[in-house]
Request: fold
Amino acid sequence: MKKYIFNNSIIKSFLALSVFFLLNGCKREISGLSPVTYSTNPDVFIDGFSAGLNYGAYGGSVPSAFHVDSSITYNGSATSMRFEVPDQNDPKGAYAGGAYFTSVGRDLSGYDALTFWAKASQPATLGVVGFGNDFGASKYQVALNNLAVNFNWKKIIIPIPDPSKLNGERGMFYYSAGPENGKGYTFWIDEVKFEKLGTISNATAAILNGVDKVQSSFIGINTTIDGITTSFNLPAGVDESLSISPYYFNFTSSNPAAATVNETGIVSIVGTGSSKITAKLGNTDAKGSLTINSSGSFTAAPTPTKDAANVISLFSDAYSNAPVDYYNGYWAPYQTTLSADFEVNGDHVLNYTNFNFVGIQVSSPTIDASSMSNLHLDIYLPAALNTGATFKVQIVDFGANGAPGGSDDVSGDITFAAPVLVANNWARLDIPFSSLPTLLTRRHLGQIILVGTNISGFYADNIYFWKNPTIPETPVSAAPAPTIAAANVLSIFSDAYTNVPGTDFSPYWGQGTVSSQVPVAGNNTLKYEGLDFQGTQLASNQNVSAYGFLHVDYYTANSNSLNVFLISPGPVQTSYTLSVPTSGASSSGWSSVDIPLSAFAPVDLTNLNQMMFTGNGNIFLDNIYFHK
Amino acid sequence: MNLLFIKLSRKIFTAGSVFLLIIIFLSGCKKEAVQTLPERNWQLTWSDEFDGAAGTSPDAANWAFDIGTGQGGWGNQELEYYTNRSQNVSLDGNGNLLITARSEPYAGSSFTSGRIKTQGLFSQAYGRFEARIKTPYGPGIWPAFWMLGSNIETTPWPQCGEIDIMELRGQEPNIINGTIHGPGYSGGSSITKRYGFTDKRFDQDYHIFAVEWTSDKIDFFVDDYLYQRLTASDVPGQWVYDHPFHIILNVAVGGNYLGFPTSQTPFPQSMSIDYVRVYKAAN
Reply:
């Protein structure tokens, strides 16, 4: 059997150890080799203010709440601190609160806790006590919230989260306490000092509430690490939670080329790639982390061009937004959707993650969109499009009661799928109210509910209701002047070019349309009044196969259907639909279109003999030409 | 560190160490008192180093489990249900045994934990019994490294004798007790002594808890510091420490000894045991 020889005498090495202690362990205190920059005075208030201590009351508090008391003191000492919490509605102030601070910092790095004794005239809960509030930056503030006190003296211990940070601390102690059930009371605090206890243990720390979070992101986005929690096991074996400044943490980025993090926990995405942000509190690893997956530069949603006068915006940097209750209602119990909204170079973007559905609410007040024609929203799916992915937009009107519920709510919805939905790009969803027949009124719109299938998350921007501006039935200004060189143009109808000769713009094919040519701001313009259809007969067949596009300028305040046809003998004809009315197209109301000639297949482009417009309303046309 | 309680039947300081202690005291550094004890050679007779894969049970050749709630919470109104599950008793893979108290409903109890013993597998009279332990903490948490007379089946407690090498009340994680229970001096009237630190705790690092037991005395040690010597003249009843005892390791939750856990007691709580070693005096 292996023999263990045990020797329980430990004296032999003691002499050597002691000498070591003398020369090293005590070096600083004996020789004074380390220059003392700041006082290490641990006392805050023992029997009066310690050296250099000042007091200031917080704004809105009773300025005279604090007194030095010589009658009720801890352990019969000379004086204590007395605090008089006011009744509710006390004209002098709403609460008792203030901070004790020094003008010159103290080195508290050799201590591990602020301790004091407290009692009160009745059982009460002090809102907050702590240290690190210096009426300035208060960089290293620590708060013990909701401290229960009673008529017995009780020792309170507030651990210093990381003493090594407190090399020049000015905030010695602070407090804030309000009435209990509307009534004031008195509490006392005594023997306030920093101590080295050694019996505070098992610190825990967390960022992001201890969750390991993964976030897609882009260059230019800043994200703040929040959800900071800490606890310390006190000498009595119980855990005490503290609210502490992020400055106590040391944050680290695993890949500073992708993301950096500053001392307050603000993460800046600076490049492409992945970076994990972690934190330590002293030697304790904080639970929780933030993994940033940066895909580089962000593609902003297209900037809206509609005139603000014709828009009611809920979320856009291009407009003033109406008051919105929330962009994510966190509707329990079934909603899973979380929000991680971000800002890139001043552009705010809604970011919904873990998406199943989410509600945006506007109830104070609801929105009267009765004069609006459409809801617009831009959405960006930052992942590959899953099979069966759909995105439903539901618009809810709260009815006359202006609140959800009751029997007066109505809603309408529309569902989008590929190819409208696209991966890694913005999809611009424009929903005409005319496509939502069950939305019987839109005078009290209260909610937009977004519901996804097989979509894990999306960004959203530019959510607004809009209408086209009102334009006169007859244009005030001329169509935009063409800019294409005449050498590249075969013109049918334009003042800017030499037109092919002999074209008949009003052949009678049995139409009801009244065709005429009218001057608009001195510019000859083709007018079709009461359009059903209207043909154009070319004097000779034209070969346009060398050209790429058909250009048309058109204007209509009242049409909701307009198509243009090219025709070759046979007849072989193909139509192209133009967007009408043109009220929103430009400030002048003129709309310009360049239609690729391939859109007219199978028309024989070498042998055009006619054109035709069909639709309704009153139409003005100009600058009809083929160009390269 | 400072000692809370120093009672030594024999304190021997060398002149040199006294001088140095004064210097150190004046300069503000603190060094624990130093004792010189006669050298003694011990020969290992039994040990468990708790080497093994993480999650596995301690060696069944060395340890048996106590299961359940015993009689009246193991005689102390304890709240835990002892199991042999790895959640409560298992090796950590780094050479330690973890006995873990958990707050979880189990078989009618609100807490689970573990209690293992060498009863029927190993017992010894006299020698040095030591374990290197990092304790759990928190109100109502009661870790212990202790021994019972192995004749307990025929000679009921307290006549069989009990030697508590280390017990800790989790609300005082800086203090342990060393105790003996015998006929006429058991339970609340047992012979006990506290040993502790003012500036650190037993849950922060491992410490070595030991007794050195001969026919006429039991010496109690923490980190080889003798803080209590008990002899027949110290007990008001019979000195019953003359037969083999077996070893018990457990973490109780609540009970008469220390009160009950509070909502602020952190769970789970583990006692981590690096080793248990037993020696006899070498010739």
User: Anything to note?
Assistant: Confidence is low (pLDDT under 50) at residues 1-32 of chain A.
